[in-house]
Design a protein that fits this description.
homodimer, 2 domains, 0% strand, DNA-binding, DNA-binding (chains A, B), transcription (chains A, B), MT1864/Rv1816-like_C (chains A, B), TetR/AcrR family transcriptional regulator (chains A, B)
DNA sequence: TATCGATAGTTAGAAGCTATAACCGCCCCA
DNA sequence: TGGGGCGGTTATAGCTTCTAACTATCGATA
């Protein structure tokens, strides 16, 4: 769906090139990983030479920053879509996994080793907390068991925003995150490859552990 | 402790330089991450110029490979040390965390986003399965609960080697790994930074979940 | 002990990257 | 129908990995 705002031709062209650059960037990331992303190579692929891309992105970091924001946006959308129809915490977990398997490098761009000098801009942190919000509302609808940590979280729950959410749900959302990420990231980084069992089964088992 | 084998002076010197190079490499990794590791910079720090290091490491990748192997070795040793005195699965988990906090980049070098073209040599996979073995023996000593996955793992347990280990222990060791990595890697990559609770508390809660 | 070969280190240079600077020409808007 | 801004170009600096060719020195062996 194109943006409804009718833009000046210069602006339209500019935006088109930017998305084309990002398309090539994703392509490159999917094959060789984020560290191998090269503005030069992208320019060559687009039939223009080197420094031309600096008209569109001030630096390689700026491009990566936008790619990260887009990845976050994509994940948030996928999760919203799931939350809207079922809202089940288990469905969300499997949604995260299918989203991650769709393009492992995209997942790792967000949740893998951080880029050395990179600091998340407010837009991505906003999307991140948006995702957290979705998790929290789903977590309130699932059964929870009390834990020692509840006392601690009761005093450190500013990040959750909404005061209506029970403390046990905060814990549930947090463990959702760590367990989903734990099983999925090990699968995506290939650390489960040596063993011949199905990573999906292990993931499913973790999801079950979340639902009790 | 120095190696007991008395080596030829040439060989001794060679080994000394190699370890000195690695020391600088670790220093550099700890500050700027693995992707910023530069042979050139290391050479300059050591007072010699550029290509001299290629006498000691055929390529940047070879150096990184050895660093990874050393990191694995270090983690394995730390875990062995713990297993020898208590053997408790919880103690092992907290051991992994303190090892990771000691040098986050070292942990991420192993368990973070993999280097694009990197394939683990047999030595590191050997250490990896050595660690797994330690986990498995510790897992047999902790209470386990049956799960659907047990049927699957019963038919895919070649990686565990030892046939004496109960299937539920395999599952326990696996979930140990995914949960410990999940909570710890999110902490180390800074994804828990926005919230003001203590990551150690969350980690401890996950460890408790492992012990039941 | 004297010699000779292996080895450590050097500089030069190719190919690649990010990024800046200076310049040209076209497009679009007034 | 101008004219300013913008896209694209080449040149260049400075960084990287890594190869090639050369020198000097160290050490094992005759």
């Amino acid at each position: 769906m194109p943006k409804p705002t009718p833009q000046a031709p210069r602006e339209r062209y500019r935006e088109q090139i930017r998305t084309e650059v990002k398309a090539h960037a994703w392509n490159q990331i999917a094959t060789a990983g984020a560290s191998a992303l090269s503005l030069n190579a992208i320019a060559k692929q687009m039939g223009m030479s080197g420094p031309a891309l600096y008209r569109y992105y001030a630096s390689r970091d700026e491009l990566i920053t936008e790619l990260i924001a887009d990845a976050y946006r994509s994940l948030a959308n996928a999760l919203h879509h799931i939350a809207d129809k079922k809202g089940d915490l288990a469905a969300l977990a499997h949604g995260v996994r299918t989203w991650g398997l769709e393009d492992p490098h995209r997942y790792l761009l967000i949740y893998g080793t951080p880029i050395p000098g990179y600091h998340a801009p407010p837009t991505t942190t906003a999307i991140s907390s948006e995702i957290m919000k979705t998790l929290l509302t789903a977590a309130t609808a699932t059964p929870t068991t009390p834990d020692e940590i509840d006392a601690h979280l009761a005093h450190h729950r500013a990040w959750a925003g909404d005061d209506q959410i029970p403390t046990t749900a905060l814990h549930k959302a947090l463990t959702f995150w760590t367990r989903v990420h734990g099983a999925l990231s090990l699968e995506l980084t290939g650390h489960l490859d040596g063993m011949d069992f199905d990573p999906g089964e292990l993931f499913a088992a973790e999801v079950r552990s979340l639902m009790s």
